[in-house]
Amino acid sequence: MIEPRDCLVPCAGSVLVGRHARHELSVRPMTWLTPITLRGVHAALVPLQAEHEAALADAVRDGELWELWYTTVPSPQTMRAEIARCLGLQAAGSMLPFTVLDAGGTPVGMTTYMNVDAVHKRVEIGSTWYGARVQRTALNTECKRMLLAHAFEVLDCIAVEFRTHRLNVASRRAIERLGAQLDGILRAHQRAANGTLRDTAVYSITAAEWPTVKANLDWQLARPR
Predict the structure, then answer these.
(1) Largest CB tally within 10 Å, which of 19, 77, 158, 205?
(2) What is the mean pLDDT of the chain?
(3) Range of the domain at 57
(4) What pTM was estimated for this model as a whole?
C-alpha cells in the first residue's frame, strides 16, 4: 500500500475541491506543473516514483491491457522503462505523471498531464490505464474530476485535451461521458507498434465549459451505483 501523502517534493496543507477531493500543494514551485497529491473518496493520485514499479507491474497484469493492439500500455516487463520515460518528461517540464491508488491505497494504474503548453496553459490528460477490477467504476470519474479541477481552478488552463485511438470505442465513450467535445480526427496520425496507422480522436473541455462539466461529474459521483 502507498500512502497518498507521498510526494516528490515537500507538501503543505490541504484544500477541498468540491466535496470530492483535496489537493496537497508543493511549497517550492518547480515549474508551472508542480508535483502534487490529489485525494478523493474513491481514489488518490500521487506523484509517480521509481519505487512504484513493482506495484504497478502487478496492477497492469489485471486485464493484460498491453495486449490490446489499439492502446499503448506498458507490460510488467516494460514498466521500469515507462516510469523512466515519464519521469524524464517531467524533468523536461512536458509531463506530470501520477500513480493512481484505490480507496485502500493500492496502486491500480497511471495517468498524466502531458503535451504541456505552459505558454498558452493547455494540457492533455493521457497515458492513462487502470487494472480491470477498477475499470467502469467511480474511480475513473473521480480521477478525471480531480485532474480537471486542478487544471482549470489552480493551473488556470484554457482547455484540457483528451486523445485516443479512433477505434478504441470504450475509451471514446468514457471521454464523452466526462462531457468532452470531439474536436476532430487526426487521420494517419501515428504508426502503432503493430505497424498499422493510427487515426487519433481528439477531444477537449474548455474553461468556459468546466462549470457545467463539473456539475455533471459531481452528479455522477453522488448518484447511487
Answers:
(1) 205
(2) 87
(3) 11-222
(4) 0.85
Residue found by looking up cell 516487463 in the block: 77
Contact 111, 96 (CB under 8 A): no
Q: Would residue 3 count as lying in a domain? A: no
Q: State the Cα torsion 179-196-193-109 to the nearest 10°.
A: 20
- Structural domain includes residue 189: yes
Give the pLDDT score at 122. 97
**Strand pairing of 181-191 and 197-206?**
antiparallel
What is the C-alpha to C-alpha distance for residues 204 and 216, in angstroms, rounded to an integer? 16
174 DSSP assignment: H
Identify residue 107 by its one-letter amino acid code: P
Helices (H), the chain: 53-61, 79-91, 138-149, 169-178, 210-222
- Please report, for the domain that includes residue 37, its CATH number: 3.40.630.30
**Number of domains within the chain:** 1
pLDDT of residue 43: 97
- At residue 69, the pLDDT reads 77
- Name residues of the chain where pLDDT drops below 50: 6-30
Set of cell numbers at residue 60: 497492469
Q: What grid cell was written down for 40? A: 478523493
Residue 88: phi, psi to the nearest 5? -65, -40
Whole-angstrom distance, CA of residue 33 vs CA of residue 221: 27
Q: What percent of the chain has pLDDT over 90?
A: 75
Closest CA to 99 of 16, 8, 199: 8
C-alpha cell at 32: 508551472
The three cell numbers locating residue 172: 471514446
